[in-house]
Design a protein that fits this description.
Number of strands: 4
Strand order of the largest sheet: 1-2-3-4
CATH class: Alpha Beta
Distance between the termini: 12 Å
Number of domains: 1
Structural class: alpha+beta
Strand content: 25-35%
Number of helices: 4
CATH superfamily: Gcn5-related N-acetyltransferase (GNAT)
Radius of gyration: 13 Å
CATH topology: Aminopeptidase
Helix content: 40-55%
Oligomer: single chain
């Protein structure tokens, strides 16, 4: 796995990753209308807009984006990975 700076061409894949995480993990904690709002907002265009004020990094393996991290100033503003990555790390692989 390699960590690299976010590229404009990553916006669609990063958006998909964020939406999958919102529908998966966050749906256990928030009502459906809140999740729907988060997902409507998490478009590639929104990610590109935010990339102007945040530094995004992606974890890539075999051409797939497995995770994303967003940093603004000295704060982590986003940190997500695919379920397969989380499972692999938790198993110590």
């Amino acid at each position: 796995m390699r960590i690299r700076k976010f590229r404009k061409s990553d916006a669609g894949k990063v958006s998909d990753l964020i939406i999958r995480a919102q529908r998966g993990v966050l749906s256990r904690h928030y009502p459906k209308h809140v999740i729907d709002y988060f997902c409507r907002r998490s478009t590639p265009e929104y990610i590109l807009k935010k990339s102007k004020v945040r530094d995004y990094y992606v974890a890539v393996e075999g051409g797939r984006i497995l995770g994303v991290n967003g940093i603004q100033g000295n704060e982590v503003r986003l940190c997500l990975s695919t379920q397969s990555t989380t499972k692999k790390e938790s198993e110590g692989n």
